[in-house]
DNA sequence: ATTAATGCAAACGATTTGCAATGGG
DNA sequence: CCCATTGCAAATCGTTTGCATTAAT
């Protein structure tokens, strides 16, 4: 219901534009709308395709669900977002693209950043000789107390 | 094509029987067949439903794919296996049910145990006050060198 | 103009479910 | 015998794709 933008609208648009431009992606109307929802306020975000689709429509923008999926894949391949799958049903897209731990609420299926500074992996298993580590995913599954 | 059982057939059957019994699950013909494939030789295993289905048929056992799925879910709920989802398409079932790190080969989509002893998490982010940690999933994604 | 991006609807693959048939305890 | 388990086929869910239309550069 709240129509108040989180930050100055022009700044949000500006950020989205730079974000797309930096990856060499054409700033179409729908990409811009999606990008604004993702990085408009500069905060990190974990969204599902469905969520983004709904959010976009709420702003009055017209986008098809297929385009949301295709766009998220494009963003992902361009390195703008990172795809994370935590349980079989649906994946999340994280605007923060470096290795960092996540909290996952099992009851609400919400994904959030865990404080990075508090994770310290002292020793990581050495990869087999013919392999490089592409990335390390750490998901801390949370259960509400007294559930 | 190899018809040679990995271990003594009776021992394998025996193990499967105890495994099911310990969880209070009725040892039907198909559950027994699946259980043998999973724990018959005492080694830890990471299987997909499709793999298990195929493996079962190769032994000449008749099982429906639906039953494989339902049975894996039953095993999972009984705490006999742990379900792991690493990327959107399909989940793995691990016969080892404690927290431990995994290697994931991005090119072949294979999941394997990473040497546990080599992982050391010095500090884990503290869970929010109203939450308990249900489990911690660590997946080390591997990319073949020079790919 | 040329080429890429969009939207729809149909296609998809993994998993689940309804329900009748079967089989353990 | 009774209730759990099975199997099949149809249903579901998230995601992708083919292709004609539209919009960027």
Topology:
The structure is a homodimer of 147-residue chains.
Chain A: H1 9-22, H2 29-39, E1 46-47, H3 49-58, H4 65-77, E2 82-84, E3 92-94, E4 102-105, E5 110-113, E6 120-123, E7 131-144
Parallel strand pairs in A: 4-7
Antiparallel strand pairs in A: 1-3, 2-3, 4-5
Chain A binds a DNA duplex (25 and 25 nucleotides) through residues 26-31, 48-50, 62-67, 69-71, 73-74, 88-91.
Explained architecture:
- The structure is a homodimer of 147-residue chains.
- In chain A, 33% of the residues lie in helices and 23% in strands.
- Chain A has helices at 9-22, 29-39, 49-58, 65-77, and strands spanning 46-47, 82-84, 92-94, 102-105, 110-113, 120-123, 131-144.
- In chain A, the strands form 2 sheets. A 3-stranded antiparallel beta sheet of chain A has the order 1-3-2. A 3-stranded mixed beta sheet of chain A has the order 5-4-7, with no helix packed on it.
- The radius of gyration of chain A is 17 Å and the shape is globular.
- The model of chain A has no long low-confidence stretch (mean pLDDT 92).
- At the A-B interface, strand 6 and strand 7 of A face strand 6 and strand 7 of B.
- Strand 7 (131-144) of chain A pairs antiparallel with strand 7 of chain B, so a sheet runs across the interface.
- The structure holds a DNA duplex (25 and 25 nucleotides).
């Amino acid at each position: 219901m709240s129509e108040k933008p989180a930050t100055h609208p022009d700044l949000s648009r500006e950020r989205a534009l730079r974000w797309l431009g930096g990856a060499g992606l054409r700033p179409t109307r729908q990409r811009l709308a999606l990008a604004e929802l993702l990085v408009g306020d500069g905060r990190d975000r974990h969204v599902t395709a469905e969520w983004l689709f709904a959010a976009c429509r709420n702003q009055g923008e017209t986008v098809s669900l297929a385009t949301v999926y295709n766009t998220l894949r494009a963003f992902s391949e361009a390195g703008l977002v990172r795809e994370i799958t935590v349980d079989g049903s649906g994946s999340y897209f994280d605007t923060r693209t470096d290795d960092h731990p996540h909290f996952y609420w099992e009851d609400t299926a919400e994904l959030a950043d865990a404080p990075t500074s508090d994770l310290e992996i002292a020793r990581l298993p050495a990869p087999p000789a013919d392999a490089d580590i592409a990335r390390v995913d750490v998901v801390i599954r949370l259960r509400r107390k007294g559930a």
